[in-house]
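Replying to the earlier thread about multi-chain prediction with a worked example.

Input:
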Amino acid sequence: MPDLLSNLGLGFAVALSLQNVMLCFLGCLVGTLIGVLPGVGPIATIAMLLPITFGLDPVGALIMLAGIYYGAQYGGSTTAILVNIPGEATSVVTTLDGHQMARQGRAGIALGTAAIASFFAGTVATLLIAALGAPLTRLALIFGPAEYFALMVMGLAFAVVLAHGSVLKAVAMILVGVLFACIGTDLETGEERMTFGFTFLTDGVDFSVLAMGLFGVAEILRNLDNTETREIARARIGRLLPGLADLRQATPATLRGTAIGALLGILPGNGAVLGPFAAYTVEKRIARDPSRFGRGAIEGVAGPESANNAGAQTAFIPLLTLGIPPNAVMALMVGAMTIHGIVPGPGVMTKSPELFWGMIASMWVGNLMLLVINLPLVGVWVRLLKVPYRLMFPAILMFCSIGIYSINSLPTDVMLIAAFGVFGYVLIKFGFEPAPLLLGFVLGKLMEEYLRRALTLSRGDAMVFLERPVSAVLFLVAFTILALALLPSLRKSRDEVFTEA
Amino acid sequence: MRTALAISLLSVLAAFGAAADTYPQRPITMVVPFAAGGPTDVIARIVAEPMSRVLGQQVVIENVTGAGGTTGITRASQASPDGYTIMMGHMGTHGAAPALFKGLKYDPAKSFDPIGLAAGTPIVIVAKKGMAAPDLKSFVEAVKAGGASINQAHAGVGSVSHSTGVLFDSLIGAKPTLVVYRGTGPALNDLMAGQVDFMTDQIVNVAPQISGGTIKAYAIATPERSPSLPDVPTTKEAGLPDYQVSAWNAVFAPKGLPADVRAKLVAALDTAIKDPNARKRILDLGGTVPKDAEAGPDALQKLVESEVARWTPVLRSAVEANP
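Result:
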């Protein structure tokens, strides 16, 4: 314990130097602003801004990049709430209730709740990293391919059971999502699947392309053929910041979301994508009146947002202690570190403690900055909703196109969002919801990979999923949930996760 | 008529613009065919900085990813050969690709004007901590004897760990089970957890885990030991001298550069790889900088030809044997 305090002391001494505070502020501000642009998520942002950190010393550069990371992550939630476009897999769930709140004129409250929940989650996650970072890495190593597969199955079981309205439609959407995930080069053999000979499909469909088409473009099409609802949403702005009653309602959700997100974020195998989703499911499960969810429930913003931010933070644990980047953003951070002459890994903590602890302390400073930057900005964002839609939608379309092009520099990606937009519009018209599709897409890719890997390692013996205790427990949970849902007597109480208004 | 005049005037101007002394007049794009933050991207950024200083124009990195790096290289190879589009090719795109990608739209040895080698990152043979064999010789015996019960990880067909891994297997005559990962990170994670037995990969990716004692290194596939891993023997010392392999990165331009533009690029790269700061950064990563005999366009052309000849048979038979 005294160790922890002296380490944190060292960290704050580094992070609170004037230069580093400024860099942290700058990083968070730039990250927030760019993250708000639809399509430009943390990956594109960091890649674009990497060169400007070259002139800085490594600690300052990393503090700034980390700031950009949280900033962009947070900015993405703003877009999800205001215009219903999830920039990252982790903000898909925020669109469900966040955007509904915005439509009801409670955009300010949604944004404020997201900022406060994120700050709280960030603070807890920072302490968790500082105190338990090293021992927690062992958890990461317990999870092999079989366990990850079981985890993903559990995720899909949640989606099936809790889907809104017709279970059949939800299952269909999940399966379409899984099918989309199969497009591209087969990982094991290098053969192309469902690419129809098009080279731009050889690496599959990018998540942002799918999300921006199904949510962003489809939403615009829907708004254009139904101008009335849009005008009403525009007219009502309401209060800008959450009041005490709102916060009281959001607090338990924030606590649970933080715990769930922090735990899943530690897993290097993309476990973090399940965080916000699991948090949302839990909130809806235990709510007294689950029907409020999908119609602007504040817990539906607070839970997933805190899970999202806690996961974003604890994702640094495998990077800092094992030297393994758990996701694409962290891989980019590894690159940034190596460019600055620091090779992340088990040695960083002992070799350059001021960097290690400085970064951890700066995480908390960064979260504080985000709060400082975003609370005043809420008013600005909310006023954006006042912009007439005939000016708004071309701007959204333009930013989507620029954003998507900036990710891979592929013109075909821009055309694909148009195609997915039309597809999404058709889905909405027929009463299918895009959220399960997106979840199927994200999990499908991972599931296939883990399933095949687990079976390769077990030489084709499927019993491996039941012989390994962690995987067996996860499967048990998944099947229990499914069985409960299929019992007709319990069907009535089936909750609705993916309610899309 | 007036349009025709304007066009001819413009083309005269353009011709002047392209005249010898004026290149480069605007920023130069260096296409990196892999994601930002990977080993090739890091080397490209290290080299681009001193090159910009020599050329007096910014060398801007553009990451165009996909299909084992061939998407970016294909696109850059089709750019106009004016010196404003260059690219960072590597062992995969300019050595292994012809064997792995049937519809490849470029020929590594014919579609480019080579500029020069930028850096190499040596390959290290690494295994899980619990691997019993004390040295490379007994490790090789164990892998051979184990047959399909040994699990070898790699980061996807066409990746460096895949190519160098199957080269290792064919050299020692072993047939381990290949376990595929999407990228080096997850593969390394499972190696540390002992889910898989061994892999071969670039020193940049594995050095911290080796130094941290979470995985075991048997040998490094270069003629000399690496300063970043002084305790790891070379394959020559450890008894497998034929396993010499490094993931090299080199600068190419689309075929047909004007001679003077090419000379400027060659000179800029030469200055860049001799820049003490850039050298130090590359060496710190565990990379190698080209020796005099390896630098320059002619040596690179020879390297590309020999690499294509070396990888094609190994990879063809590996892909056929393990469909």
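Residues 141 and 162 of chain B are 21 Å apart (CA to CA).

Feel free to reuse this layout for your own posts.
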